[in-house]
Amino acid sequence: MKKIAIIGGGASGMACAAMLANSISASVTLFERGERLGRKLSATGNGQGNLTNAYMGASFYRSDDLQKVERLLSRFGTEDTVRFFSEMGGIYLPDAKGRVYPAGKQASALTDLLRKTLSRQGVKTVLQTKVSRISRDLTVYYAENQRDRFDAVVLCAGGMAAPNFGTDGNGYALAQSLGHTLVPCTPSLVQLRTDPALVRGLKGIRVDGTVCVLRKGRPVYTTRGDILFTESGISGDACFRASAHAKEGDVLSLDLLPDVKEEELYRVLSKNDGEETLLCVVNNGLGRVLYKRANGEKSALVSLLKAFLLPVKGTLGFAYAQVTKGGIPLAETDDDLQSTLCKGLYFAGEILNVDGDCGGYNLQWAFTSAYAVSEGIKGCF
Question: Domains plus CATH for the chain?
Answer without folding.
Answer: 2-186+324-380 (3.50.50.60), 192-315 (2.40.30.10)
